[in-house]
Amino acid sequence: MAETVSSTQVTSRVTARSGPSLLIHGLKKAFADVQAVNGLDLEVQPGECFGLLGPNGAGKTTTIEICEGLTMPDQGTVELLGLNWQRDAKELRQRIGIQLQETQFPDKLTVEEALRLFRSFYRQGLSVEESIRTAQLEEKRHARIGGLSGGQKQRLAMATALVGDPELLFLDEPTTGLDPQARRHLWDLVDGLKRAGRTIILTTHYMDEAERLCDRVAIMDHGKVIALGTPQELIASVGGEEIVEFAVCAIPAVREKTNAGASARVTHATLAQDDSEDCLPTAVNVGQLTAIPGVQSHRVDAGVHQLSVSELHMAVPRIFAELEAQGLHLSEFRTHSATLEDVFVRLTGRNLRDE
Amino acid sequence: MSKLELSSLYQLTMVRFRLVLREPEAIFWIFIFPILLAVGLGIAFRNRPADVLPVGATTTQLTQALAADAGLKATEMDEAAGTHALATGNILLLVVQAPNGVTYRYDDTNPDARNARLLADRAIQAAAGRHDPVTAQNQLVHETGSRYIDFVVPGLLGMNLMGSAMWGLGFSIVEGRQKKLLKRMVASPMPKWQYLTAFLLSRLAMLVIEVVVFLGFSRLVFGVPFRGPLWQLALICILTSLVFSAIGLLVASRAKTMEAVSGLMNLVMLPMWILSGVFFSASRFPNVVQPIVRALPLTAAIDAMRGNMLQGIELPQLAAQLAILLAWFCVPFVVALKIFRWR
Q1: By residue range, what is the domain housing residue A250?
Q2: Cβ contact (<8 Å) for B8 and A70?
Q3: pTM for the complete prediction?
């Protein structure tokens, strides 16, 4: 067993093999009347942290459970580390680490006892001490699992996945249901694992998590990959790096000048309308807006207009001028950098968390 | 880490063992409850001096004649009061003076009342001058092994082994399935047979404590006899525990909720509590159902235990019971392994 000083320096077993760690081709799986996975192709390289991002019900968990050999696909092939589940199940179980959604370990067992148990299943792996250190559970070592917080339980689940020193690590929604602090703690752990060169495949429905952790992301919807690439590539594919959101109404004749002048200098602010009765929802001439240089696209969601914009500093004054020229008054205006959420919205017309 | 600590079967068994010991309710049901039950039954059915039977008579002369028998407690009462006392169970028999002799009023389906009838008649006939042609003498023997407590201890032992094996396995497995722990286990390289075998092994470890505590208590407090070889009794206990572990495994092999598995458990165990002769001899059931009663695993287990403890019968004579038990181990275990649902 390897004796190492710091958890983050634990390097995974060296694989002589070249080629992808995970190769999925033409994967399909249906449950009763739901087509959970509908023709999926993926390739994950060694050392990569790969994210499956999508709303609940997109087929992420089904996909990852097929990869983990827990669900049989209806069609398609899955190859892990050059092996497949039909022939090499025993070997694969030894070489991959799995964290499932919502596993509850026995409350009355201690952290150390649970890890000792899981360690005993593997031919080789980390020592129990090492896995406890990696998951930063040193203080809870002799504590019963029933008394752990949600974040600590999740870190224990991760430790049980790591204790066999896997070449390929699957994390299924590792931070779902955790508070922000516990999420950041877990992200730091995954960062450490990435630095140690482990190949990680994780699912999440938090776009910020995918952006923060993943080298490459596949955005899934209705059992299919609808976008694939690095987070930066995907965001760039939206067409602009910045998103401008605003809501408008028809202006009362007198106050227009002052108000419009004020809003021109405020970007990250919502301008409250002091006299809302005067403000009526009204139509915007979209063609004029998208004609502004730098504005890539336009869509409306619940009364809020969204423009994706490539050169914010040039475009915003023109947007204000155009809206004023159309006789419209801003009731809301804000901008933010484009995120994977915007990519999803752009591709599906829905918000990621609507589901 | 030592070699033993790296063995997954050892770790799985130890985890099972720890989880049971850390569950206070389980400790009560497995260790304390059977002792309480034995104490309760021991007190209720303790051997008293031969019962004195209460009877009534309508005349002073008859009352005196009855009182001469040590087995009777006679009270004089008029016919109306006597009829009432008979109806309320205060007396077992009423002797009424008739013009040409006596009339006995009693319930002939009550064994005590029939006894009272025999004793009363003997006393009255003797008082009237009857002489027995044959002189008879009594020599009293109080044999341990023929008391109710001796009969009921093996029954309780069998019932307890059934309950602890079935609840122990059934609940843990269904809980593991509900909490997705089973799914997590099969996602690891753990050999599946070891998970199930660990249950049997930890059960056997518990069994030693359970059986020794209960039988030791029965021996010390009630003087229950052990006439057969102890190692054979141990073997019967182990086999019994394995049988009910296998049945528990089968019952829990597909159930997804605690409610479902509790229902199934009760469905399986209730008939045996009634039919298998825990509290009274199974031979009291009509001949038609005897083949079924005899084929039940708990009947076979209890019969074998009684045979060993009370009669000192050796294993070869218990072959029929052992064969039944063996069948009840193999079939459910194999079926359970086949249909077991890990998620």
Answers
A1: 242-348
A2: no
A3: 0.74
